[in-house]
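COMPLEX REQUEST
Ligand: pimeloyl-AMP
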Amino acid sequence: MKKWYSVRMRSSKGGSHENGGQHISGAERLVTPVELETTTTEMIRRATMHTRGEADFISLKIESIQPSEIQYILPLCVKEIINESHHTTKKVLQEQLVSSPIPQELLFSLYDWIIQDNVTRGAAVIDINSGKRMDPMIDRGVRVSHFDWDKEFKDKWSTEKLGVYNERRAEAIALASKVAAAGTICEICCSDDPEYTTGYLTYQHNFIRIPNMKQKNSPYGGRVFFVDAKKLDIDEYIHYLETTPVFIGGIS
Ligand code: WAQ
Ligand code: MG
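STATUS: Structure written out below.
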């Protein structure tokens, strides 16, 4: 059986995250032993040459994973919609989620939160019933890791479905597919990279790309996972997102 490693990176500026440093970037992969060196080099480059600033703290974690725990899931269906400017983002979100159980006020307040968030390095988990945050560490949020594309599947899939390949997009689709498979009703994401204004939402197995999600040059962004806390066990949900190894596409 093939051996796999989980590789995780998080970087910050002005000290470590735990000591109040500002989040710069993060990355997570599942790789074979021969890919370890190139993967970690790429991650260090990402942390030290980032548009959010140059990191002075980098945490790199490498752990072997149990092959028997690996799960395989399919990617979400990618859709494109038009959003002329950040002024119309709320309207677009509302239209796309009209059949969802998420109250509009809650949706809008969390959208306002993600486009101003500069602290959280993970995602906020929100219960659609109470509107409360369910993840325990407010500054950290939940960081989804232990996921990656199955390489062969990704090559075929991206040629068919993505047209021009975009690494950031492929990473976001992989993450969102794991998040959806965990039982999330809807995810909303906006990049915190100042130059990248395209965000997305996921709902009912769709990954809906939203251009102009935020104002250009804004260094804020974040992620929200809407869940029904009456229907799932939050500890199990977070445990799955943070530790279960998941490949997108392919079969064992
Ligand atoms: N787990 C949970 N939350 C995360 C993770 C993770 N592994 N990585 C990032 N976040 C949160 C964190 O709060 C970041 O500030 C925020 O998400 C944005 O992360 O089709 O690049 O990596 O072109 O800046 C969408 C692309 C890109 C859509 C999203 O997000 C498309 C992106 P970023
Ligand atoms: Mg970022």
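REMARKS: The pocket of pimeloyl-AMP (ligand 1) is lined by residues 26, 28, 120-123, 142-145, 168-169, 172, 175, 189, 191-193, 196, 198-200, 209, 221-223 (CB under 6 Å). The chain is about 25% helix and 25% strand.
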